[in-house]
Amino acid sequence: MSRKFPLKSSIFAIAMLPVAAHAEQPAPQESGETPDAAPSDPRTASEPGEIVVTARRRSERLQDVPITIAALPAETLAKQNITDTRDLQINVPSLTVGRSAKGGNGNYIALRGIGGNETLFGQDQTVGLYLNEVPLARQDGSNIGFYDIASVQILYGPQGTLFGRNTVAGAVTYTTERPSDSFEGYLKVEAGSYDHRRLTGAINIPVGETLALRVAGQLRRRDGFITELNSGRSLGSQHSEAVRGTLRWAPSDTVTNDLIVEYSRADQRDLGGLVYGAKAISAVPCTTGRQAACFYGPGAPSGAADPRYANWPTVAAALALNLSDGPVVALPTVPKSRDRALMITNITDWNLSDTVTLRNIAAYRNIKAYSQLTGAGLADPVSRLLARLEQKQYTEELQVQAKLFDRQVELTAGGFYFKETGTESSSSDSFVSALSLPIATSYGEIDNSSRSLYAQATYRPDWLPQASLTSGFRRTWDRRALTISSGTRTTTAFVDGSYDLGDQLNCSLLDANNVALPLSACSLTNSAKYAKSTYLVTLDYKLARDILVYGTISRGYRSGGFNVRELFLPSSFRPETVNNKEVGFKSRVSLGGVGVQLNANYWEMDYKDTQTVVIFSFGSPPRTGTRITNAASENLRGWEASLTLEPWRGASIGGFVGHVSGEFLQFDPGNGAPVQASRDAGAPAYSWGLNASQTIDLGSIGGELTVSGNYYYRDGATTTTITPARKGPSYDQANFRIEWARVADSNFDLAIFGRDILDSRGYIPNTSTNPFTGGLGVDFRPPAIYGAELTYNF
């Protein structure tokens, strides 16, 4: 099937090409090894312009690591206007980041076509999210923003050995800046269109010879861009604050301890999403009580819905048309979301000798999230959701790193413990005012834990120093327990924003005979244990100092779980596994004085026991619902490539492209539904980007001037395998930035910028897919933002 790129994309790409982590500085290097520093400190480079990564839990040159990595240091984050997790996707291939169905402060992340189906406690993620080497089990509150970040790294493919479970597609790691022994800091003020305001700052204070303190924070505001007609308020706003304190204690040359305390909060008004491409389901009659089968939304196929509900497609069509004048919706309640997150991390490094380091990472995280959302953007909403979540997690990791046998072997080994408790409750309805149905409520309480032991070693023989063999193994033991309650209550309780399961009219949970349980005993509990092994074997060879070829096989594992919305004893689904094969090369050379960096790979993944959302029927008269089952096995394949050129002093031109394809080898939802012929959930077939930047020394004027721009495009895709799912629209984005660093040799930096300057009216996917209409959940695309930024460095 042929793919067409938009004409405007091609024209813009000629001049504005994304600097990705695939886009490192390609100047030739002389040094070979990264110096012995903190075991996982990505900020320490062997030479100026060199990028050091920690993909193997120790510091190494990016071009020496036989893994596909996109590494974005602080300079690139600033140059490419990356201000939150969602901005990452426009700078790297094969990555999709969207808004969670529960609001704007959580994320849906898919990598190489693998993403999660649910945002509930019952199912874990497929792309691990790590902050200072600590896994964030729940992504609620993870999109509050970047500030004082030293490095972001995207690791492609299963990372089950060193990072553990729930990284079947890969991992995204964030490393924050650490205290130094100098008094320094900065204050950055940013303002732009839609009353965009962002205040970011950090101060580093040495306290004696052994202590140093770094405090950083960010305040972010932006008005909404969607008009809600009934209240007159704007939706799609940004309103968040965050602060982080890091205390470094170095009592000796061999011991360093970093204590990191971070608190963040966000209060925003988010539209719950639109239903894109909904269409009738032939198996469900378009009659009263089944209006979901009649609904058409923006992007739907041609045809008329049942005339008795003609106002729905009419309103949907009007909603699409108003994009030309700016999004307008009419909702019965004003949607909102609220997140609070506290995280405490302690990292201790103890160099027992020049070849052995003991490392301990302990952390605690507490998140509270609340959302009240209305979906579809229609006067008669398709769906409404009121949800609360509270989660506490504790992690402990003890790790040893050693260089053995005359430094021919580098070993990383350790043990990991994870504990998670929490509650999640929700109320939801569909087509409420049309049917006058009561609100469905659910409540879940979890108690999860995980333990694992792992070891990974790299052997580089003295007799063949160009080659190395890496092998690793991890064994994980998981325990999950879930207690659920489910019922119905009045619509009034939902509309007025109150939330109390005591309002329930009845219990929706059923016993083994499909009889509803009494309200006095409306709860069911189930538990399960899982154990899985993951591994990695990699062989790499250096054809020259900066030309590396490699091949790897690896296995990833996502834990099993429970169906939180189940009406029976919570059914479980098994773990899923991914077996990955990958070959690639990394090169960094100089051709006629032009620095050239070219990296490329090809990969295949066999996906077993895929955790898939399916529709099922139960009871008499028949009722329908959704649940996660191990319904499929799949084969995915693809490739990524990146190129960076430095044609002359201060200039950089780069680009990347990624391709994903695949199909179900088996699809058995167990509900009598037809087997699907295609597989593209979370997998745009192509994603690509370009960038260009030029830095000029201003000489006697003082300072440097840098002009940079980037462009990104990806094909449309759906986020679900539910029948009959439809693809969402394609997406492209362009940005620019012009910065004058050290203005007139002062301590000030001045910049102007534009984000999403194409200002294309349209939609972007999220995860709020309606399983019964087959419509894809989408959001209105944010408008272009232009602004200026002033930074004072001291």
Poorly predicted ranges: 1-37, 43-48, 278-324, 376-381, 431-436, 492-501, 673-678
Roughly how much helix do the residues carry, as a percent range? under 10%
**CA(first)-CA(last) distance:** 56 Å
Number of strands: 41
Strand content: over 45%
Report the sheet with the most strands, covering strand number, pairing sense and barrel closure.
22 strands, antiparallel, barrel
Give me the secondary-structure category. mainly beta
Report mean pLDDT, rounded to a whole number: 79
**Overall morphology:** globular
SS element count, helices: 5
Radius of gyration: 26 Å
Question: In terms of topology, how is this protein built?
Answer:
Blueprint: H1 7-15, E1 52-53, E2 60-61, E3 69-73, H2 74-79, E4 95-100, E5 103-111, E6 114-115, E7 127-131, E8 134-135, E9 149-156, E10 170-176, E11 184-192, E12 196-207, E13 211-222, E14 226-228, E15 234-235, E16 238-249, E17 255-268, E18 274-276, H3 311-321, E19 328-329, E20 336-351, E21 356-375, E22 383-404, E23 409-430, H4 432-435, E24 439-459, E25 467-489, H5 491-495, E26 506-507, E27 524-544, E28 547-558, E29 561-562, E30 572-573, E31 576-591, E32 594-618, E33 623-646, E34 651-667, E35 686-697, E36 704-714, E37 731-741, E38 748-755, E39 763-765, E40 776-780, E41 785-793
Parallel strand pairs: 7-10, 14-19
Antiparallel strand pairs: 1-2, 3-9, 4-5, 5-6, 7-8, 9-10, 11-12, 11-41, 12-13, 13-16, 14-15, 16-17, 17-20, 18-40, 20-21, 21-22, 22-23, 23-24, 24-25, 25-26, 25-27, 27-28, 28-31, 29-30, 31-32, 32-33, 33-34, 34-35, 35-36, 36-37, 37-38, 38-41, 39-40
